[in-house]
Amino acid sequence: MTRKSGYYGRFGGAFVPEILIATLRQLEKEFYEAKSDPNFWSEYTSLMSTYSCRPTPLTLAENLTHYFGGAKIYIKREDLNHTGAHKANNVMGQGLLVRRMGKKRVIAETGAGQHGVAVATMAARFGLECTIYMGEVDVERQRPNVFWMEQLGATVVPVKDGSRTLKDAINEAMRDWSASMETTHYVLGTACGPHPFPEMVTYFQSIIGQELKEQMLQREGRLPDRIYACVGGGSNALGIFSAFFDDQQVELHGVEAGGKGLESGHHAARLSSADARVGVAQGYKTFFLQDEEGQMKETYSVAAGLDYIGVSPILANLRETGRVQFHAATDHEVIEAVRLTMKKEGIIPALESAHAFAYAFREAPTLSKDTIVVINQSGRGDKDIFTIADALEDKQWKEFIIKKARGYESH
Amino acid sequence: MNLTEYIREKRKTKDLLCMAHLVCGYPDLATNREVIRIMVERGVDLIELQIPFSEPIADGPTILAANQLSLQRGTRIRDCLSLMEEVSSQYPIPFLFMTYYNILFSRGVDTFVKQAQQTGGVGLIIPDVPPEEGEEYLTACRTYHLSPILLMTPTSSLERLRLIAEAGDGFFYCVARKGVTGAKTYLSKETDEFIQRCRKVTDLPLAMGLGISSREDFDYLAGKVDIAVIGSAIIRIFEQGGYQALTSFLEKLIIGIS
Question: Which residues are CB-contacts of A300 (< 8 A; sequence separation ≥ 6)?
């Protein structure tokens, strides 16, 4: 009778109030049916190749390769997806499921706003009503994304509880869902939360790794030696890693937000620091940054998309099995990596993605020339113009903003 | 006398019992003590003490804010256990803890349940542990003779209600509607049908909560369920009018229920 599902080793599960169980079961059933329907995946890939830019290119970073003088560096270009990040893969996939279920409204949480923009875009395209929950702090620091969500027709609700960031937006979306589930689907943005979300989000994101494998075999005739991906909730990492789980020769590296340094306490490193403990919150069991009584802590990163207390239960398990190794990159290293990638390759990685770049840059010079590494560029960095300009202390940018503000004031 | 017997005994003289809720440490522990005194004096039959948690996903704005304020003011689990110890020995009514699973998990489920029992608690309400995930929790409750109060909801299938009925003990907490705590509930024919479905699967007493806020609600529920649960409304009344308002609110709610 009792059925425990969605476990990855000792992580995962579905720790939600009883009121939501029936909805999660229905979602699980719909998802498994879609997954076993041979037409569903081709419907999905065809949507992604006509509405987004799939397959995304695999770029050889010749200049960076030459600069470091070690491993040959490739970049998987998820930044070239519609809306500028890998988020679209998950969102459009769940959008197709929403259509199958016949629901008329979608809700979502967002941190940096990338997932929110992707969901608002999907809702516009599929004719759905859309509400996005976003921590008040994030609303303030990510105004451009709020602007786009609203222009796309979504209602953005600033969440004023708790730390007023991503975790609080997730709680609020869950609260909405526990009243509205009959007409509403919750488009969770990462491979976290209660079952079946971790599995479902990974399934849609797995398109990244599948493409990479094919592209690699075509270009190099072999698989890469190492793959690097940044880890917030873990969806882009699982997306690029999952196609290689059985290829033991391919090393998989996840890079978390080291913030101001692991020893500073101001970071969001769940799997690469000793600061996180196993706990249960937001519907699932994983490593959380929490105090000794189980209250969640505030996290910190220059990249809003990595600034989160928990991490995918699938990744937590892969750390225990040793299949994926986890590291942290600091804000400082990340800014340097963005600067270098822009100058050398004409590519602007998102601050989140730049964590993977930063760690890969640490390793690349130590590797031999016949080593092949791939960095997952999960998103584009032009969205981060305010943060990057601040980090680079660009004087002219500052003057421009001041002038602009004065212009508004005088009206 | 165990929890179920207590409820049955009381029901002989009352058509509806009242379980009142408060958040430990909100606005502070001294106020909690005074509020509990008033509750007991005004005829509240059971009290749930909520241990604050940073991520209370089943709670609406009123209780959520109370959780946060309590934590900001530094409430620790040991404060909640001490409060339990104090009031459970002082008053002749059952006290239960309500909280979220991470509070138990973080301390060690077995340790927490043991401490809850040792300090005088008779039951636990943990809304984010469905029976499937509750093996360790339910085992610990059996070991220390504490009743795990499980939730029955309008979205639960009959099959699930049976599963819940099998796993729970003491009484069942029937969730009056979809959604979270605090918002107004309109009791209706649907509520009656839901209560009947719950009755079908268990002989244990039934409590009904979520958005219960008025004498009309109590009158509606009298004779239909055994216990009415009142939570957010108490916090709101107290915030607006202090002890005086709370006293008259409880009087109006409870006196002469038939």
Answer: A257, A259, A260, A266, A267, A268, A307
Q: Is the Cβ–Cβ distance between A42 and A340 less than 8 Å? A: no
User: Of these residues, A272, A273, A301, A378, which one is catalytic?
Assistant: A378
Tell me the torsion sign for CA atoms B128, B134, B137, B143.
Answer: positive
Write the pLDDT tens digit of every residue in A270-295.
Answer: 999 999 999 999 999 999 999 999 99
Instruction: Assess whether A264 and A362 both reside in one domain.
Output: yes
Helix (H/G/I), strand (E/B), else coil: B48: strand
Active-site annotation holder among B28, B41, B59, B251: B59
Does residue B111 sit at the A interface (CB-CB below 8 Å)?
no
Query: Is a pLDDT exceeding 50 seen at residue A1?
Result: no
Q: What are the Cα distances from residue B113, in Å, to A290, A348, B52, B136, B164?
A: 21, 53, 16, 10, 20
* Residues A335-383: tens digit of each pLDDT: 999 999 999 999 999 999 999 999 999 999 999 999 999 999 999 998 7
* Boundary (domain end) residue, out of A155, A176, A201: A201
Q: Give the span between the Cα atoms of A107 and A361, in whole angstroms.
A: 38
Query: Is residue A406 one of the residues assigned to a domain?
Result: no
Q: Judged by CB atoms within 8 Å, which residues 278-307 of A form the interface with B? A: 278-283, 288, 290, 292-296
Residue B258 has what pLDDT? 60
Q: Give yes or no: residues A279 and A230 share one domain.
A: yes
Q: Is residue B93 part of a domain?
A: yes
pTM (2 decimals)? 0.96
Q: Within this chain, do residues A234 and A265 fall inside the same structural domain, yes or no?
A: yes
- CB B212, CB B254: distance < 8 Å: no
Cα A255 from chain centroid (whole Å): 12
Nearest beta carbon to residue A162 from set B54, B101, B105: B54
CA dihedral B137, B142, B143, B145 (to 10 degrees): 120
| Residue A105 domain flag | yes
A90 in the same domain as A80: no
User: Is A298 in the active site?
Assistant: no
Q: Are the CB atoms for A111 and A165 separated by under 8 Å?
A: yes
Look at residues A248, A235, A243, A245 and name the one whose alpha carbon lies nearest to residue A212: A243
B161 within some domain: no
CA-to-CA separations, B97 to A30, B5, B112, in angstroms, rounded: 37, 19, 11
Q: Which of A72, A76, A87, A383 is catalytic?
A: A87
Instruction: Establish, for the pair of chains A and B, how many residue pairs have beta carbons separated by less than 8 Å.
Output: 118
Q: Is A378 left (phi over 0), alpha (psi -120 to 50) or beta?
A: alpha
Rg of chain A over all Cα atoms, to the nearest angstrom: 20
Q: Are residues A167 and A306 in the same domain?
A: no
Range of B30's domain?
A: 3-148+218-251
Does residue B97 lie in a domain region? yes
Strands A58-60 and A324-330: unpaired
Please report how many Cα atoms fall inside a 13 Å half-sphere around the Cα of residue B110, on the Cβ side. 3
| B105: nearest CB among A1, A4, A279 | A279
CB neighbour list of residue B85: distance below 8 Å, 6 or more residues apart: B119, B120
Assembly ipTM: 0.96
